[in-house]
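input
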Amino acid sequence: MVENKFCGIFVDHNSKEYSIKLLKSISNYKHPIDIHIINNFDGFDDYGEYESIKLQVHNIDNIGYFQSINYVLKKIEPTLFDYIFIGNNDIEFRNDIISIIENKNYKNSVYCISPDIINRSGIHQNPHVLKPYSFFKKLKLDIYYSSYHLAKILSMLFRKNIQKNNKPYEYSGEIHMGNGSFYILTNHFFSQAKILDTPPFLNGEEAFLSNQIKSNGGKTIYDPDLKIYHDESVSLAKVNNRKKFNWSKKSYKQHRRFL
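output
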């Protein structure tokens, strides 16, 4: 069997130690792969050397998550790869994803694969959204974004509910949206789109990508055989909650129609 070609593009938000953990987790499985690290802060470029990884570092200003991914996509030819991993750098491979993918037979209509992503609290973050939001669910979000203080109260209630009911999801198949920390984009996606549709700056990437995939005739699927650990929200760890809320509120107005 001819081996597929793999590429990874990851954004480092001033947290090089996480990038090194990620690279080590990928190199453990000894598969040839091109990796691009986008350093948005300090010009650091000494991420080490790895036998199976062809590593390239890009030092650029912090222009946003998908915008940074697009910076690299414009420099490479995405269609030369069968699969491109994209994500923030606060993740680690927890099984041999590349070998598992090699033994899969995904349909041509699959443009994006979302793995089983487990955060530091043991919560499984995929499937992020199974079906498009109902009118009433969008109404709840309208209320949530109407007030920062109301959002804080609702967040506490939602967090308790999520932690209480968290269980691994066994379903494998099409979903509406995957968790934005990590995606696997297929060659079929890049046969239709050269770069990612982007939100204004931050938040809402999941909705924009979901809409872009569906608009081009593709599907996002959830595959629980693929395991990723997510050391959640390193990219926003130093940002105060009110600023994060304001960013999310601004983005929500842009991507609400895609939910």
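quick obs: The chain has one domain: 6-258.
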